[in-house]
Amino acid sequence: MFPWPRLAVGAFLLLPALSTSLAAAGLPDTIDRIRSSVVAVGTFQPSGSPRQQFRGTGFAVGNGHFVVTNFHVLPEELDAGKREKLAVYVGRGRSAHFYPATIAAQDAGHDLALLRIDTKLPALALHDGPPPREGQEIALTGFPIGMALGLYPVTHRGIISAISPMAPPQLGSRALSAKMIRAMRDPFDVLQLDATAYPGNSGSPVFDQQTGEVLGVLNSVFVKETKEAVIQKPSGISYAIPVRFVRDLLHGAK
After folding, report:
1. Please, which residues have CB within 8 angstroms of residue 12's CB and are 6 or more apart in sequence?
2. I want to staple 78 with a disulfide (CB 3.0 to 4.6 A). Which of 26, 47, 84, 139 is the partner?
3. pLDDT above 60 (res 176)
4. What is the pLDDT of residues 92-132, one digit of tens each?
5. Over the stretch 41-79, which tens digit does the pLDDT of each residue have?
6. In whole angstroms, how far apart are CA 11 and each of 70, 92, 96, 221, 230?
């Protein structure tokens, strides 16, 4: 058990808005099945105040000892002098528990990381059938706005609105970042969603509403103005990394 920490907003590359309804047929049962596989990812420092720092969302895969999240959710470094550790938080509310985690594999190019934990969680099934289609109904579960809302997984639903290149066209060279230039040199398609994004949901599983199979990993939001404006004026456009890259990462970690 642990006290509630202050919200530590990491990257603003994150996820969905509060949905008004979860009325899709079968979705409540799907949420019941996947909820216990979704975890919070952050750090733990015994002498810190707060001791927990939330950085994003993750979910269990493979043999249940692996957790997928975004590469950008990982801290650049840990303070060994203060015994800071990478951490996964499992459970709900004040009954949640902290488990130390290590990095099993990472893929910075596709913004993915695979963590290993000692405890075993129910793993989510990764979609391995026909590619997702535009218009397909999806849902995602994670922690919007981080622990500010408490450690209770929240589900949002929407559709795959487009399948588009990772690096969108820019109006001029000044708008190009180093990350965008690298992406254009080795482009790959991502899932564009109609879900509004907030800090905290990075790493959330994007899954089929009926089957619960994971189709992708939510990783970014289109920012219209500034990062600070994401909360006040969300764009309603977010992106997910296709699940095939998760399978590749998991295979390489065995």
Report:
1. 199, 221, 223, 227, 230
2. 84
3. no
4. 877 788 899 999 999 998 999 999 999 999 999 999 999 99
5. 999 988 777 788 889 999 999 999 999 999 999 998 888
6. 10, 23, 23, 11, 11
Structure tokens at 103: 């990095």
Angle in degrees, CA 192, 199, 223, rounded to 5 = 50
Q: Does domain 137-253 have CATH number 2.40.10.10?
A: yes
Return the amino acid letter for 30: T
Q: Using alpha carbons, select from 35, 52, 164, 133 the residue that is nearest to residue 100.
A: 52
Residue 83 identity: R
Q: Do domains 36-116 and 137-253 have the same CATH topology?
A: yes
Q: What is the C-alpha to C-alpha distance for residues 98 and 114, in angstroms, rounded to an integer?
A: 17
Sign of CA dihedral 208, 32, 42, 120: negative
Q: Tokens 């218009």 identify what position?
A: 135
The domain locations on the chain are 36-116, 137-253
Give this prediction's pTM: 0.80
How far is Cα 62 from Cα 123, in angstroms, rounded to an integer? Answer: 6
Residues 142/35, Cβ–Cβ less than 8 Å: no
Cα separation, 218 vs 17, whole angstroms:
13
In this structure, is the dihedral angle defined by the CA atoms of residues 5, 203, 222 and 168, taken in order, positive or negative? positive
Q: Can you tell me the mean pLDDT for 162-182? A: 58
Q: Tell me the two tokens of residue 210.
A: 């009926």
Q: How far apart are CA 63 and CA 89, in angstroms?
A: 18
The CATH topology of domain 36-116 is Thrombin, subunit H (2.40.10)
Q: How many residues does the chain have?
A: 254
Question: Tokens for 34?
Answer: 């996947």
